[in-house]
Amino acid sequence: LRARYLIACERIPEAMALIKSCINHPDISKDLYFHQALFTCLYMSPLEDQLFQEVLTDCKSGIEIICNTEKEGKTTLALQLCESFLVPQLQNGDMYCIWDLIFIWSKLQLKSNPSKQVFVDQCYQLLRIATNVRVIFPFMKVIKDEVGEDGLQICVEICGCALQLDLREDPNMKSLIYKAIAHFLPNDLEILRICALSIFFLERTLESYYTVEHLYKCADEEYNECASSVQNRVRFELLPILKKGLFFDPEFWNFLMIKQNCLALLGDKA
């Protein structure tokens, strides 16, 4: 109660002294309120820059603090707290609680500023500092959910950028990106075929071969820009990126040749 009173009166140095004493106590420190109150004091003080250094190591506790802060109507502080947990996770490549943090961050960011363009720009800024390419998936999820139709094209562009990274040590991740592109563009037969072949080259499984076979048995279709989910520019930029993962250009091979080469790659499984 005393800590709440001091914060309400904006007697921040006294409040911080009391709260830090409570945090240092072995029993009282278990109450997350005091950790939350410390962040509130830092936010209200000239020492606001210390906020990132004062973060708790446990993200689950941090998420609870963020949610409690938001419930009190302190959206700006909750957003800054969320970023103070999220940014180190992105920089360290740590996926612990990352889906929850990105989801909460997206809601707070849009509540703080409803502009969809600002939201996308902020997503790109956070993606630039990420060291683990797997974070593209939670970011694509929130972009697709929050931005609407334009979000799908942004997700495709993010996949294209990710494929240009050096993923030779992580073929599973590369395969997931191809699968994501196929999911985003289910009506583009050419893209689907290239993604299926690329996935087969990475996985060399019967299941992935059957997908290739099914797609090549479908009747050829002319690409219809008007019916596409993405702009022609994005598709034009994506095609050469996708083809880099192929052992051959399927445009110059009929299905019989593709089948023979795929079966050769399957080896004994064929």
Number of alpha- plus pi-helical segments: 14
Percent of residues in helices comes to 55-70%
Poorly predicted spans: none
The fraction of residues assigned to DSSP E strands is: under 5%
Radius of gyration: 25 Å
Total beta strand runs: 0
CA(first)-CA(last) distance = 72 Å
Mean pLDDT over the residues:
89
The H-and-E topology, N to C, reads as HHHHHHHHHHHHHH
Largest beta-sheet details:
none
Q: What does the overall shape look like?
A: elongated
Describe this structure in words.
31% of the residues are buried. This protein has helices spanning 2-8, 12-24, 32-44, 59-71, 75-92, 98-112, 116-129, 136-147, 149-163, 171-184, 189-203, 206-217, 232-243, 255-266. The longest helix has 18 residues, at 75-92. The model has no long low-confidence stretch (mean pLDDT 89). Among the domains are: 1-55, no CATH class; 182-269, no CATH class. It has 14 helices and no strands. With 270 residues, the protein is an all-alpha fold. Belongs to the krueppel C2H2-type zinc-finger protein family. Keywords: DNA-binding, Metal-binding, Nucleus, Phosphoprotein, Repeat, Transcription, Transcription regulation, Zinc, Zinc-finger. Pfam families: TPR_Rlf (PF25580). Residues 57-269 form the Zinc finger protein Rlf/292/654 TPR repeats domain. This is Zinc finger protein 292.
